[in-house]
Specification:
Blueprint: H1 5-12, H2 16-23, H3 31-44, E1 62-67, H4 73-88, E2 92-97, H5 102-114, E3 119-122, H6 129-138, E4 142-145, E5 155-158, H7 161-174, E6 180-183, H8 190-205, E7 215-216, H9 228-234, E8 239-242, H10 245-257, E9 267-270, E10 285-288, H11 291-314, H12 320-328, E11 332-334, E12 338-340
Parallel strand pairs: 1-2, 1-3, 3-4, 4-5, 5-11, 6-7, 6-8, 8-9, 9-10
Antiparallel strand pairs: 10-12
Organism: Gemella haemolysans
GO molecular function: DNA-binding transcription factor activity; transcription cis-regulatory region binding
Domain HTH lacI-type: 3-57
């Protein structure tokens, strides 16, 4: 495992700036603190890099992008949007696949720091607390694309997941459908919590009883969903709303294989809307979200943050128009969405 300046700071119970001062033999460090940091450096066998030596002020025009799964269609579309704006502003991008693993993710962030990236765009499903603390400590601009943080620690670009789920659930309920199943990935992510709240609020507004068994969790990929229809049929669902297109496809194929009629016996709608939904027969209904635009807007927001932060550090004049634009934006930016009925809903 790569030992980073963050690991040293955490072990020594000091800031990363203090570790950097010790590495650079800066006299403005108390002797007992210096000795403690040096002892930790020796214990962890830490080798200071360019960042720890205070060279990170150099502009690299490089952006680090963290992907949860390099094969994920939604991530690929977001990256296309990021790249379009990055090219416009002469930024290079580095892609890193975390495999949705927190330890790999931590090493990726450390690698980005050592490469002196100017900013990071995070596409992972959920930032761990340790990753949040690390990103805040290293003071590199971060934007979340297609996912949410907590308490607005970072700028994020999404659609309003809560309202989208509320709207589609309410629409099905208004047509007389009562037994609606919501299929999600993990309960603990902020995005999932928003989906669940929208779903529950729609049921409550229609005075329909919430049944906990109608929320089925733990499904994100086609492979994981190979036995999902059994769970759906056990609760006698009339409608299935899935968080991901691959899960919608798997559910549909299993239902069709069993002789079910789509949408006659079961209606299916996805909240993701990648290119996959138009490649299926029947075509899957969805909440259309502008995935490419989520990437493009994320990159543009990041360039504004980078420019302003660098001007502040160098004591240069800040672009007032850019600063005003950034201040006018909510930290959580929601792009427009719409419900698109294709062939899997009535």
């Amino acid at each position: 495992m790569t030992i980073t300046i963050y690991d040293v700071a955490k072990e020594a119970k000091v800031s990363m700036a203090t570790v950097s001062r010790v590495v650079n033999n800066n006299p403005n460090v108390k002797e007992d603190t210096r000795l403690r940091v040096q002892e930790v450096i020796k214990k962890l066998r830490y080798t200071p890099n360019a960042v720890a030596r205070g060279l990170a002020s150099k502009k690299t025009t490089t952006i680090g992008i963290v992907l949860p799964d390099i094969a994920d269609l939604s991530s690929a579309e977001i990256v296309s949007g990021i790249e379009s704006v990055a090219n416009m502003y002469k930024y290079n991008i580095i892609l890193a696949n975390s495999c949705d693993d927190q330890e790999i993710e931590k090493n990726i962030f450390a690698s980005f720091v050592s490469k002196q990236v100017d900013g990071i765009i995070y596409l992972g499903h959920s930032l761990s607390d340790s990753s949040k603390n690390y990103l805040q400590d290293i003071q590199i601009p971060v934007v979340l694309a297609g996912n949410l943080g907590t308490d607005s620690e970072f700028y994020s670009v999404n659609i309003d997941y809560e309202k989208a789920t509320y709207d589609i659930t309410k629409e099905f309920l208004s047509k007389g459908t009562k037994n609606i199943s919501l299929i999600i990935d993990k309960y603990e992510s902020q995005k999932t919590q928003r989906l669940i709240k929208g779903y529950k609020d729609a049921l409550a507004s229609a005075k329909v009883e919430f049944k906990p068994q109608n929320i089925i969790d733990g499904y994100r990929t086609y492979k994981e969903s190979n036995k999902l229809y059994k769970a759906v049929s056990n609760i006698e669902a009339e409608v299935v709303i899935t968080m991901f297109d691959e899960v919608a496809l798997a559910t549909m194929q299993q239902a069709l294989d069993l002789g079910m009629s789509i949408p006659g016996d079961l209606q299916i709608l996805s909240l993701e809307n990648t290119k996959l939904i138009n490649m299926t027969r029947p075509k899957i209904s969805s909440v259309f979200q502008p995935i490419f635009d989520i990437g493009a807007v994320s990159m543009r927001v990041l360039t504004k943050i980078i420019d302003i932060e660098k001007a502040k550090r160098k004591g240069e004049e800040i672009d007032e128009e850019e600063l005003a634009e950034l201040k006018a934006q909510e930290k959580e930016m929601n792009l427009p969405y719409r419900i698109v009925h294709r062939q899997t809903t009535k």
